């Protein structure tokens, strides 16, 4: 029975890796990631999360580079996927840093699309989350961005 669970886990991990390489950055891929994390035992959870964080870190640079020439909506979709993926994998720092990047992207895009403007509450929530998790450099960046954007109003 344990061998079957290991086989299923290996298959799920392989499928997740494949979907990432195919740039299938959508809800079913996040659901697969979540199922990988809940399918193992508690002892192996740390090792699984570590392996998934490494995989995500290895993929994100190439994916963001590919998205850099795409419209803002595509960049935002990619950032949103990785925010969720890093949160699921337990990498709070990268999740918060990417949330910051996504808010900057939205704020920049709101010049053409006013409905994308980031609210004061969204900036403050990210500030509080960063501070609560001990990521003070992210907190400082968010506060600087918040000061800049709100002083321009």
Describe the structure.
The protein has 153 residues and is mostly helical. The protein contains seven helices and no strands. Helix 1 runs antiparallel to helix 2 and helix 3 runs antiparallel to helix 4. The longest helix is centred in the middle third of the chain and has 26 residues. The chain starts with a helix and ends with a helix.
Summarize the structure.
The chain is an all-alpha fold and 153 residues long.
Annotate the secondary structure layout.
Blueprint (H helix, E strand, L loop, with lengths): L1 H20 L5 H13 L2 H26 L4 H17 L3 H18 L10 H13 L3 H16 L2
Helix pairs in contact: 1-2, 2-4, 3-4, 4-5, 5-6, 5-7, 6-7
Could you name the key traits of this structure?
153 residues; single chain; mainly alpha
Give unreliable regions as ranges: none
Strand segment count: 0
Q: Pairing-aware structural class of the strands and helices?
A: mainly alpha
Secondary structure: helix percent: over 70%
The number of helical elements comes to 7
Q: End-to-end distance, in Å? A: 62 Å
Kindly report the average pLDDT value: 90
**Radius of gyration using CA atoms only:** 17 Å
Helix-strand topology string: HHHHHHH
> What summary fits the major beta sheet?
none
Net shape = globular
Task: Please report which band the strand proportion falls in: under 5%, 5-15%, 15-25%, 25-35%, 35-45% or over 45%.
Answer: under 5%
């Amino acid at each position: 029975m344990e061998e079957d669970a290991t086989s299923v886990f290996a298959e799920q991990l392989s499928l997740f890796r494949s979907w990432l390489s195919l740039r299938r950055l959508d809800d079913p891929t996040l659901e697969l990631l979540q199922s990988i994390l809940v399918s193992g035992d508690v002892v192996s959870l740390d090792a699984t999360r570590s392996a998934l964080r490494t995989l995500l870190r290895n993929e994100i640079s190439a994916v963001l580079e590919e998205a850099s020439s795409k419209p803002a909506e595509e960049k935002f979709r990619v950032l949103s996927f990785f925010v969720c993926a890093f949160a699921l994998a337990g990498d709070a720092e990268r999740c918060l840093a990417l949330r910051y990047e996504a808010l900057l992207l939205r704020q920049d895009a709101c010049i053409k699309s006013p409905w994308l403007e980031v609210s004061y509450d969204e900036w403050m929530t990210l500030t509080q989350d960063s501070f609560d998790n001990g990521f003070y450099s992210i907190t400082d960046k968010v506060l600087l961005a918040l000061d800049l954007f709100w002083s321009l109003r």
